[in-house]
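fold-stage: in
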Amino acid sequence: MKTRFLLIVSFLFLSMSVTFFILGQDILALKHSSEVAMNTIETLQQENEEIQHTLVDLEKEKADLITEMEKLTKEKAELEDKVNDLSSQKTETADVQKKTNAEKQTEADKKSKKIAYLTFDDGPSKNTEKILGILREKNVKATFFVNGYPSKKDLYKQIVNDGHTLGNHTYSHNYSKVYSSVDEFFKDMNKLNDFLEEVTGVRPSIVRFPGGSNNTISHQYGGTKIMNKIVSKVVESGYQYFDWNVSSRDAEKRTQDKNVIIHSVLEGAKYKNKAVILLHDLDPKTTTVEALPEIIDELTKQGFVFDALDENSYAPHFL
């Protein structure tokens, strides 16, 4: 009986030893698996950091490319100015040769005439009323590329009554909407023309695209060719569109420094015979209003006269 008991105890002890051994192996295996998992996590974290650094580098490259593209766009506009001036000179020279001395002098005067076109985008607003007062005081005509604001009907009427030009800048100025397709752009543009005709009796024949004809934001909504398609359709429909060859830079900040605006306009116009000047008259653009009298006075000193745009005016095109 005692021997049997000892055998049972020995068997139990052996079984427990085997069990503990197996458990020990499992624990070691789990520990190893945990270490592998930790190593994997560390590797993934390192790879994620590398990806984040790569994304930062790509964003910097993108910003550099955008800056370079803006520089090239400006250079293109300046070259177009020179080409247009040369082309105009060539055509007019042939006509002048057929005229009398008095007529030749008249044509020469027209050719050398420096014209500044003040253009205001995104209004009307409370600043538009102040701008109209300055223009009235200076006896200057300008162009307002407006959006649709039913509460501002009196300002649209005042623009027309003061002898300025109304231009279409789309009703909504909503990039995601107007640049989603050619049809959506025309729906929005026609909505504004209908509204302006009802309010003022004037249906604009000139257009300025939000962001300009070469803007790239539109690519997000209508693809990389959307502006080419819209521009072609606008021209085909009998409208003239206007970009600009002088920027006031008042769109670079919510409220730009007054002196930056003045300097940008005067330097941009200095060597041009025809200056289409981009300004804005949204509510925050108080410094644009403040800069306007000095801009007019200094451009006058440079020999410019002022005029409002129409479909036959000199028209800078980015596309």
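fold-stage: in (second)
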Amino acid sequence: MCADLSALVIYRFGGESHPPPSELSAPGGEEVRFVQLRWTDLDPNLGGHVSRLDLDEQWIRAQEHDPEVNIAPSFRERGGRLGTIWRNGEKYSSAFDGDLSTAWMASRYLCSESVWGCDEYGRPGIFEIFLGDAFPIDRIKIVSGLADPSATVRNLRIELGEWSDRQWLVREDLEIRDNREQYRVIPISYDQPVSEIIFRLAEHDRPWEVGEVEVYAKGFVEKSTYVSDIIDFGELTAWGELRWSGFKNPGAELLIRTRSGTDADPDIHWKYTGRGNERIKVTGAQYDELGFGQKAGTTYDLDNWTFWSEAYNFADSTGTPVASLSPRRHLQFQVEMVPSGEASSGLDFLELRASTPPVASELLGEIFPFELQVGHVSRFTYALKPTFKGHDTGFDHLRMKTSTGRLLA
């Protein structure tokens, strides 16, 4: 889509320290509307959100774990839990609260006295944590016996794993024998993400004092996500190019996608009427205020919104046409960063060019001839068929740019 400069609007996210777009200094640049936004300019009410992402006003990066931060105490913030759906783990919550002044006293048990029957590591000695997400684990620290050294945890088995298809998969199995250290650091060599850790205390004839279990992660998160606010252009708008500046280390992925719509909400919200399974449409704000039994779920608004586009080729950072349907009034973009080992990715800025109002609803171009002989000068004919609708402004001249950078007016 080609646009007269008087209709051009450029949105830039991040990269305030970079030079302004070149269109501003070109002839007619005073008519270009340039909107500079920060990466942190997000409003959840407009669909904006981030997940496991490092960001500031200037850039966004795949999140890297701080190896000095104990991730265990924050398990609830990520939706994790202690114990399982069959057994409540709150009795040993003081072992994961990040507070060395509290402790869980693990009661004595001997297999010979257990009604369950067991080997050295019996059911009474099990305590477990679901981290709420998957992490590559660097090390685990067991703090025990601070008030009474004789209550130090001596023998312990640790199983690191994850749930997959409703099945517990042990990924690493470690055993600590005859421990005498009150601060026992256990290096973890397993380099795949772990979502759950099971600890098995061996049988013991007196209570053991578990002061704290600390878990430290390493490397990058599995995936970082940035979803922009839904941008309202106020009227039908023709999308131009996306441009960006960033980096992608070999092996890592950086995926940019867009979607467009005719209204401000890509979801349809439903409310139960109270008459059987009958339901009616409500706004997003009304849906948020409904009670649990009144919410009938949400569905995607296929009539007014496109699906997320295929990911744009990261190598096309100097300019690639927006793939989402236009002219439309609303646009949203998504950035996903998928690290691999020590390889990561990030963006300094992303720019969107658009024509408001559109100069034409559609431009269909054909070039002739389709084939030519290599090494011979040839004359090309370019035919252009515009389709105008509604408030399309039209145009009286066309400027094209070849792959060599030559401008054709």
